[in-house]
Amino acid sequence: MPTPPDDIGPFYRPRPPPLLQKCPVCRGTYRRHHLIVRGRVLSDDCKTPLPYTVIEVWQADQLGRYDTALDLRGYFHTDRNGYYEFTTVRPGNYRIRGYRPAHIHFYIPSQKGHRGVFTQMYFSGDPFLGRNDTCQKCNSHRRDLHVTMYTDCDRVGFCMDYVWFPIILARGSGVSTLETEVLQRRRQMTRVFMQQRRSSPVAWQDVLLPRRAASSLRIHNYMRSPRIAPRIEYDMGPYQQYYTRHRDRYNGPNNFWFSSREPSYDMYMYYK
């Protein structure tokens, strides 16, 4: 069964820095909080490894504080057999009206004929899992997102915690998030093709957008006045930014060309 999606949260930042799979951790600052996360990315048959898959991670520190800059976030690739490993610190619980269980965010983009996913890894035994999670829409109750920590100490008494977190990707295209899964079940989503115009090579991705946004796009396609083409926020996985209608590049009611505030994310959309 594919790894279930989970809430993206407010602290995701596109284009994080590279993260070494065995990065050094300061023993003085994070003593007794070291954590090695290991896992494997597989296809939905649970046997076929997905080599060189991109994985993005971000998390809070041991006190539950998020750094909105570049600390405790980054990306890396699986090896040729689909395995990954990185060293970090055990995240702490943080408070938003109540407490969230300790977790690490994962994002695997759509690649190699498989759907991407935004998900979270939780720790078994956390008292704030499930019903005690202040984020009631989150999937902290899902046992397939829980990991068990094991501790290993060296001869001088320096200890590290280890967890194993496998990731199963469904075949297909697009990105699964908690929000898109809910909207899709309610039949409030429509499907589009997205092209990153300035990527090299040009990449197509099949994504889902809320129907309300799609209806707005269809209306705006016929509005020639730029002052009545408002900004719309799309639910498109990693591209959760505000986009404005740039100009019509092709004729037809189903073709749209948008330009974001980030020039590298101009994209052409075609509705099925």
Structural notes for this entry:
The chain is mainly beta. Helices cover 7% and strands 36% of the residues. The protein has two helices and 19 strands. The strands form four sheets. Strands 2, 3, 7, 8, 9 and 13 form a six-stranded mixed β-sheet that branches. It is globular, with a radius of gyration of 20 Å.
Please render the helix and strand layout as text.
Blueprint: E1 34-43, E2 54-59, E3 73-77, E4 83-89, E5 94-96, E6 98-100, E7 103-108, E8 116-123, E9 146-147, E10 150-153, E11 159-164, E12 167-169, E13 175-176, H1 178-185, E14 189-196, E15 203-210, H2 211-220, E16 232-233, E17 242-245, E18 255-260, E19 267-271
Parallel strand pairs: 1-11, 1-12, 8-9, 8-13
Antiparallel strand pairs: 1-4, 2-3, 2-7, 5-6, 7-8, 10-11, 14-15, 14-19, 16-17, 17-18, 18-19
